[in-house]
Structure formats: C-alpha cells, structure tokens
C-alpha cells in the first residue's frame, strides 16, 4: 500500500482519502479480533496459573489473603498432624448440606491456641470438639461449634475474619479470644484492613485509590476478578506482603523491634477499630458477640511472668513491677466501657491451668494447650454460655428464625 | 506511565481507535497524538512538561531563524542562532544532569585546598524545592542526586538538536508547522527512552497518510509482545534473582559468581533497553510511524568497534554524525584520530550519567577501539609489504571462525569490564567485587536466575534465519492468533510484575 502524497494545501488527495477510509475500516475490524485474541491469550495463562495455585494450595496450611494478611487454606488436610479444614478454612468437618436449619452455631476465633496448634493435639482434642460434646450432651437440637483459629493471628485479624464469615456460616454467637500479648493487641495500622461496600469487602489499600462514588463498581470488579482470575488474586495477595516474605513472618519480625509510644497507640487503635467493626456487623445481623479474655501462658504462673517481663519489658516499655492482673483489668475495662462489648473472663481458668502447667500446656512450645488444657478451656466457655441463660436465649431465637440455607459463600 | 502498566493499556485502548477515527484530518490526528504525548509525559511530573515545551519553542524558533539566515546567505547569523540552540538545549540538560556532579567535584577541590566551605549545601539552599528530589538511581544507588533528572531529557534534547544542526547544514527544511515539530519532539512511544529519532527521519512521515495493513499491524503487536517479554521475563527476572543479590552484597559471593553476575548484568541491561526499544517501535507502528532500529544483535559482535555500531545505534550514530565526524573521525592522523574517538566515547559515557566511572567507561571503550584500529592498520601495512591483498574474513568462512574464536573472549572481557564499572557505581564496590570476593558459590544463586541466564544466551545465539522466519510466520497468521500471543505475554507480565521495575534507560 503506497501512501499518496498530500495536495499542496495539505489536504489529502481523493485516492488518499479512500485509502485512509480503507485503513480505518481495517483497524476497527482488526481491533475486535485483537481483543478476542488478547482475552484468549490472557485467559489461557490465567487458567494455567489457577491450576498451579490449586495444586500448591492443597499443601499449604495458610495462604496470603488480601483482606486478612493470611488465612487458613480452605479444604486443607494433613493426616500426619491430623489437621483438616472445611470449605471456609475452619478447623473441622464441613457443615453438611442437610444441616438442621435450627441448629445452634457458635463461632470461636483467635490465634494458634484457638486453632489447636502444638504437637500431639489431634483434631478431636481441640476445644471446639470438647465444647460441642458438652453442649450436645442430652440435648435434642444439635449445637455446632466452629473453630476459627489461625496461626499467628492478632485480635484485629480475627475480628476481620469473623466479619467475612458471618454471612457464610450464620453463627448465633461469635467470640474472639483476646489476651494482653503484643501479638494479640498490636495491629500494624498501615497494613491490611478492609471496608464493606454493598456486601462486598474491598481492601483499604484498594479503596483508598478510588473516589468513594466509584467504590461500588470497584468492589464489583474486584469481586469478579478475584473469583475468575488467578493472576489478579496473586496480585491482591502480593499487596499485603512485603516482597516475597509471608506476612506471618513479618509480624514476628515486627515484634522484635522497639517502637515509640505514639506508634504503639496507633497499633492499639487499629485493634479497637476492628472490634468496633465486628460489633457493628454482628449487631446488624442480630448475632451475639463476646470477647473471651484468655491470657497467654506467660501469665499462667508467677515465675513465667517474671521471666517474660525481664526479657521483654524494654521492647514494650513496661515497668518491671507490672502484674498480669493489672493489664487484664485494663483490657476488660477498655472492652466493656470504651467499646461496649460483653466480655467472658477465662483468666481464672488459665491461672488454674498454670498450677498444673505440664499437663495443661505442651512441654516443648509452652504456649499451646494440651488436650487436657483444651478440655479446661471448653469447660470455661461452657460456664460462660450457661451464665445468665445465654444459651437458652440463643436457642429460642434460632427456633423462632431457622436458617434458610445450610451455609452461604465466603466473601473473597 | 510505563509501557508495562495497566494505565498504559487503558491509554492505548482509548487512543488507538480515536486516532484512526480522525485519521483523515492531518491536523486533528497530529493534535490528538501531541495531546496524548503530553499526557503520557506529564503523568511523570507535570512540571517536566515546561522543559519539553521550552525546548520545542526554542528549537522551532531557532530552526526558522537559521533557515532564513541561510536563505539570506548569512552564514554568520545562522551559526549564531545555532549556538543559541546548542547553549539553550545543552544548558538545560547540563543543569539537570551535571550540576550535582559539578558541585561534588567542586566540593572535593575546596576541601583539598583546605577550606571548610560547604558548596553542596549552598547549591541546595539556592535551588527551589521542586528541583530537589532526594532521587536515588536504582542502577547505581551510590550516586546520590539532589536535583531531579527529568525523564527522557537526554533523549529529546538530542532529537531537537538534530533538527537545528541539520537545518544549519542545509540537509533539512524547517517543519511545516509548530504542531508537526512539537509532535516530533514529544511523540510518546520514543519520548522517554528512545530510540533517538532525527527530524529528517520523522518529519517526512508526518506528511504521509498513516500506514497500516495486516503485515504492519502484526509486526507491531509481535514486537510489543517481544519487548514485554524481554523486559519482564528476561531483564527483571535476571536482575532480581541473579544480578541484584550479588551486587548488593559483593563481599558475600565468590569470584566465579561475580563473573556470572557481570555477564548477567550485560544480559539484563540489553534486554531491558532492547525490550523498551522493541515496544516503542511496535507502538509507533500502530499509529503508522516507523522508528529506527536501536539494536542489531550487539552481543554477537567480535570487537568493541563493531559493538558500538550495533548497540544503542541511534545514539552511536548521532554522536558519530554530529561529533565524531565533524572532529575529523578516523580520517585524521594519529594521535588526532585517537583524540576524536576518546572525546566521542567519553561523551557517550557522560551521556549515560554524571560520574567519573562513566567517564572511565567511555575512556576504556575508546582505548580498546583505538587499539583495534591500530591493529587493523598494522595488519594492512604488513599485507601490503608482503604484496598480499588485505581482506576481512567473511562471516561463516573458516578464517572468520578462527578469528572469532580469538576475538570473542577479548570482546566479552571488554564489555564485561565496562559493564562492571557501570553497575558497581563506585570504585570501592568495584574493589569489593574483584579483590575481596566471599565464599558463596554458584549453588547459592537462584535457579530461576540461572534458567533465564541460559535462555538469554540461547536467544542471543539463535540463527538470524530463524528470527526472520518467525517474523514471516507472524505476518501470515490471523490477527486473533497474534492477539492471543500478546494476551499471553500481557498475562505473563502481570504475573511476574514485581512492583513495576522502571526501565534502566529512563535514568539516562
């Protein structure tokens, strides 16, 4: 195709106009085919990535998650350690399709203690099974206790995860295990978090890049791409990581460094904000919420507490004469008075467990509970459920409004 | 806006149909391209636009003045206006690129003279805040810059200079309109990292109706896909997994790993820059423009002289035509010819960056080229004395292979040596690399880095006939197949994109 020279006035000659018209038609015709090819090529690579991810994810217990930092892999199974996750990443069996619509559901969330980590703790040894056994003994209507523990989680992460699970499992009561440890209470205020837009969850990082008026469309696009594009999901996951290091390691690395007071206060504020968000989400759905104060093993005996303070007081700027009860009382005060949430206090149970430390805490990691320790925690939770007729109230409410479906889909 | 970004995909998805929809009107299509180019450039920093507009206004005006002076037969006036152009363009380039270096050297001199005067602090205090960037060069982070370096300034300054110089030489008529000239300066595909297009190559294309057909379209898409692959799959991966770990911790790795990393760095910078050039050429083709090739298998060269005729050709040839030849080139007698070459190569070094290591880089290459020329001249004289004709070995013959076997290790060592000086950034780091190597061996290097290293080497050695056959095949297949290839490459780019690594040559 030889281009025609322009006329002297700069306007193209007639044959040039015809040629340009032909070229324009050619370009517009090819653009359609080009987009088709682009889509097919992208989709083909995306499908391969999805297959690779699916093959990989079966082996990993946790995966990066754009809204939560990381979370349990759905459907994960490890026969050797006897750890199995359901379709939502909860440690336990899947909720069956024909589950009783009036069954009571209690969802407990927290860190590795709630998950049931530690050598020698089988699936059936974890607190939720023990509590389920206690609750179902002699009852006509079943109670299902769901274990929402995730290794290394903070209270803020547990609260966020609870929000994403509420519509999927429709619990009657949610409790989040909380302690006064740094891991539990300190949330990096600059990382993670999400906002809810029209029932969809959008990471704060993504939401901050768009005009609020466009957020519904952004949330819809984000949801669709997350469901159908493995490459997009990988990008979202990468957003919450720094480099290639899993966020769970970032958290541990972060605790080794001395932080200034203002930064620590911002971390605490991020935690309180997450609790407030969960409270609002539960209230909107008529779900009971409790914060279960379960101290860590460092507080379980005076000797361990003294040793811990000696080793860590400098990092957290703690006075050397601080006693566990002081910080626990301060925490309970904040939860009840400032945040307006109801509190279950299991500190007495943990102190009791400390009296016979070796039989209640796993000897080699000293943080996690033995099967006997899990039974003890389950008994403490049972006590709180029976107090003030809470269990009966929950039961009556569910009987009056049975679930319309066994379970829903998890927000991505 | 980077080529490998979602923003660019959206940008091109809107611009391409718009351009072809109004392609009938010369002024409209050029105005749209100019507006798009300014948007493309302004997204880096809006105030950078003021520099490109200044350069455009200056050279458009000066070009007209020179042309008029020549028409009046007034060579003196034409030369005076040429100096205005040279001073204006090189002044702006020099200010942004070399002020920091000048003051750092001045500070060194002041301290050597025993004075406590802080001229660097004085410089910082004298400049407006928006000039001061805290900019860190990712290639050589040790070279700290206080003054921001506007993206692409080294490229478009040379482009506009070619315009005024060619008019002065009587080889080019001024642009038909300011719009044409502004588009020549700012045309977005090659604006920020070349190829350096001369006015004589670009302006005539503006007078032609934009060309597109199946072959050109497929060629464009193919080259964009190849460029993406070279940048993201080859350059970034080899940099991330092989080059950066070694150069960031030179004392940890053994000597053989350093050698591997230096070769890998040559591969990285080659794929990075050639990848950008491929994409620029491909994108320009979508709008009906042809840009000059910038690379011609440089790593297959057998000598440093040959390398510089195959690597970043638009810069080498620019300096050849506007600096080296006017100085006398190789036509001068030694030592003047050596001086011409050293001056040109040191300018090439300084074009890349303001540091003594870049001067060294140019100087070493120049000395090697002078030695090569001297050797050839000696062989010619010897042949003449023996009564034999002097002939260069033809590629593919056994004589050529024998020579290649001896020349290639020398060439590789030269390129490696000068590359090491670029990447090290400081004399200290070069010392660490060569004199104080650690004990981590090749087994500690990422397997991905090694895989891409071998793949790059394989592609460099791929027979030219295979590459040509691939192009012919691409021209014949249906458009959706080429689209699919590009889609797959976009997906791989999205998969491997690690926080969007900028192109290395954006920093020059």
What descriptive keywords fit this protein?
heterodimer, A: 412 residues, alpha/beta, two-stranded antiparallel ribbon, globular, disordered N terminus, B: 508 residues, mainly alpha
Q: What do these coordinates show?
A:
The complex is a heterodimer of chains A (412) and B (508). Chain A is built from 16 helices and 11 strands. Chain A is α/β, with parallel strands linked by helices. Chain A has a 5-stranded parallel beta sheet, sandwiched between helices. A two-stranded antiparallel ribbon of chain A has the order 1-2. In chain A, strands 3-4 form a two-stranded antiparallel ribbon. Mean pLDDT of chain A is 84; it is low at 1-9. In chain B, 70% of the residues lie in helices and 0% in strands. Chain B starts with 5 loop residues before the first helix and ends in a 12-residue tail after the last helix. Classes of the chains: A alpha/beta (412), B mainly alpha (508).
Give the topology.
The complex is a heterodimer of chains A (412) and B (508).
Chain A: H1 14-57, E1 62-65, E2 69-72, E3 77-78, E4 83-84, E5 104-110, H2 112-115, H3 127-136, E6 143-149, H4 155-169, E7 173-178, H5 182-185, E8 194-197, E9 200-203, H6 204-207, H7 215-228, H8 230-239, H9 247-255, H10 261-285, E10 288-293, H11 302-316, H12 324-338, E11 342-345, H13 347-355, H14 357-360, H15 371-386, H16 390-400
Parallel strand pairs in A: 5-6, 5-7, 7-10, 10-11
Antiparallel strand pairs in A: 1-2, 3-4, 8-9
Helix pairs in contact in A: 3-15, 4-10, 7-8
Chain B: H1 6-21, H2 26-42, H3 48-71, H4 75-112, H5 119-126, H6 153-168, H7 178-186, H8 188-191, H9 199-206, H10 214-248, H11 255-286, H12 304-307, H13 313-327, H14 336-352, H15 356-385, H16 398-424, H17 427-435, H18 447-461, H19 464-476, H20 479-496
Helix pairs in contact in B: 1-2, 2-7, 3-4, 3-6, 3-7, 4-6, 10-11, 10-18, 10-19, 10-20, 11-16, 13-14, 14-15, 15-16
Unreliable segments of 5+ consecutive residues of chain A? 1-9
Rounded radius of gyration of chain A (Å): 27 Å
Query: Strand portion of chain A, in percent?
Result: 5-15%
Number of helices of chain B: 20
């Amino acid at each position: 195709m030889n281009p025609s020279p322009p006329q002297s006035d700069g306007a193209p000659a007639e044959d040039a106009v015809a040629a340009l018209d032909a070229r324009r038609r050619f370009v517009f015709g090819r653009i359609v085919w080009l987009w088709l090819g682009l889509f097919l090529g992208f989709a083909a690579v995306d499908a391969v990535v999805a297959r690779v991810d699916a093959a990989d994810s079966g082996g990993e217990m946790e995966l990066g998650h754009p809204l939560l930092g990381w979370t349990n892999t759905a459907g994960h199974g490890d026969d050797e350690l006897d750890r199995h996750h359901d379709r939502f990443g909860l440690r336990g069996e899947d909720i069956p399709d024909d589950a009783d619509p009036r069954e009571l559901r209690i969802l407990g969330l927290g860190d590795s203690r709630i998950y049931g980590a530690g050598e020698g703790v089988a699936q059936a040894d974890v607190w939720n099974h023990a509590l389920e056994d206690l609750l179902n003994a002699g009852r006509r209507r079943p109670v299902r206790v769901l274990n929402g523990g995730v290794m290394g989680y903070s209270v803020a992460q547990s609260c966020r995860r609870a929000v994403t699970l509420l519509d999927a499992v429709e619990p009657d009561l949610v409790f989040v295990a909380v302690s006064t440890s740094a891991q539990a209470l300190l949330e990096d205020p600059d990382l993670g978090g999400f906002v809810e837009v029209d029932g969809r969850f959008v990471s704060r990082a993504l939401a901050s890049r768009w005009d609020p008026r466009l957020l519904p469309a952004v949330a819809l696009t984000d949801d669709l791409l997350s469901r159908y594009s493995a490459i997009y999901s990988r990008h979202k996951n990468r957003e919450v990581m720094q480099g290639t290091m899993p966020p769970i390691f970032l958290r541990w690395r972060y605790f080794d460094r001395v932080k200034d007071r203002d930064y620590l206060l911002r971390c605490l504020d991020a935690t309180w904000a997450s609790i407030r968000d969960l409270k609002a989400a539960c209230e909107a759905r008529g779900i009971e919420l409790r914060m279960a104060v379960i101290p860590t093993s460092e507080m379980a005996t005076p000797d361990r507490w003294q040793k811990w303070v000696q080793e860590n007081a400098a990092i957290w700027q703690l006075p050397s004469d601080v006693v566990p009860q002081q910080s626990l009382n301060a925490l309970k005060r904040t939860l009840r008075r400032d945040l307006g949430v109801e509190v279950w206090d299991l500190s007495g149970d943990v102190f009791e467990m400390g009296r016979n430390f070796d039989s209640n805490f796993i000897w080699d990691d000293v943080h996690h509970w033995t099967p006997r320790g899990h039974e003890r925690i389950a008994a403490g939770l049972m006590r709180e459920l029976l107090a003030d007729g809470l269990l009966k109230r929950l039961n009556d409410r569910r009987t009056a409004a049975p679930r319309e479906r066994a379970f829903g889909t998890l927000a991505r | 806006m980077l080529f490998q970004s979602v923003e660019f995909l959206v940008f091109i998805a809107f611009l391409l149909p718009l351009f072809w929809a109004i392609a009938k009107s010369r002024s409209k299509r050029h105005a749209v391209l100019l507006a798009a180019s300014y948007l493309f450039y302004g997204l880096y920093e809006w105030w950078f636009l003021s520099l490109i507009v200044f350069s455009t206004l200056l050279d458009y005006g000066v070009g007209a003045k020179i042309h008029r002076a020549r028409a009046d037969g007034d060579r003196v006036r034409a030369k005076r206006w040429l100096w205005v152009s040279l001073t204006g363009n090189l002044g702006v380039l020099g200010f942004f690129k070399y002020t920091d270096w000048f003051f750092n050297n001045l500070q060194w001199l002041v301290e050597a003279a025993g004075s406590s005067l802080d001229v660097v602090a004085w410089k910082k205090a004298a400049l407006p805040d928006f000039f001061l960037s805290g900019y860190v060069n990712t290639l050589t982070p040790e070279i700290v810059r206080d003054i921001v370096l506007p993206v692409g300034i080294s490229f478009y300054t040379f482009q506009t200079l070619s315009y005024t110089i060619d008019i002065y030489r009587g080889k080019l008529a001024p642009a038909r309109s300011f719009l044409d000239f502004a588009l020549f300066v700012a045309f977005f595909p090659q604006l920020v990292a070349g190829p350096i297009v001369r006015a004589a190559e670009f302006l005539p294309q503006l007078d032609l109706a934009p060309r597109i057909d199946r072959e050109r379209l497929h060629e464009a898409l193919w080259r964009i896909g190849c460029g993406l692959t070279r940048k993201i799959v080859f350059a970034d991966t080899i940099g991330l997994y092989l080059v950066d770990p070694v150069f960031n911790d030179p004392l940890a790795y053994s000597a053989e790993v350093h050698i591997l990393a230096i070769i890998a760095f040559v591969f990285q910078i080659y794929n990075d820059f050639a990848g950008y050039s491929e994409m620029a050429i491909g994108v320009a083709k979508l709008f009906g423009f042809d840009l000059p090739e910038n690379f011609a298998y440089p790593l297959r060269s057998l000598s440093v002289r040959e390398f510089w005729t195959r690597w970043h050709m638009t810069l080498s040839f620019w300096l050849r035509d506007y600096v080296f030849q006017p100085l006398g080139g190789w036509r001068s007698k030694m030592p003047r010819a050596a001086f011409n070459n050293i001056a040109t190569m040191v300018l090439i070094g300084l074009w890349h960056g303001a540091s003594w290591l870049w001067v060294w880089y140019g100087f070493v290459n120049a000395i090697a080229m002078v030695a090569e020329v001297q050797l050839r001249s000696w062989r010619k004289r010897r042949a003449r004395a023996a009564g034999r004709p002097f002939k260069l070995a033809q590629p593919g013959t056994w004589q050529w292979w024998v020579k290649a076997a001896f020349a290639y290790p020398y060439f590789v060592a030269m390129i490696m040596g000068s590359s090491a000086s670029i990447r090290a950034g400081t004399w200290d780091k070069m010392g660490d690399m060569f004199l104080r190597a650690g004990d981590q061996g090749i087994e500690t290097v990422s397997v991905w880095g090694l895989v891409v290293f071998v793949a790059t080497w394989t592609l460099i050695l791929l027979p030219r006939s295979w590459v040509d056959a691939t192009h012919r095949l691409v021209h014949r297949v249906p458009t959706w197949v080429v689209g699919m290839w590009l889609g797959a490459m976009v997906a791989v780019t999205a998969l491997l994109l690690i926080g969007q690594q900028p192109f290395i040559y954006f920093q020059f």
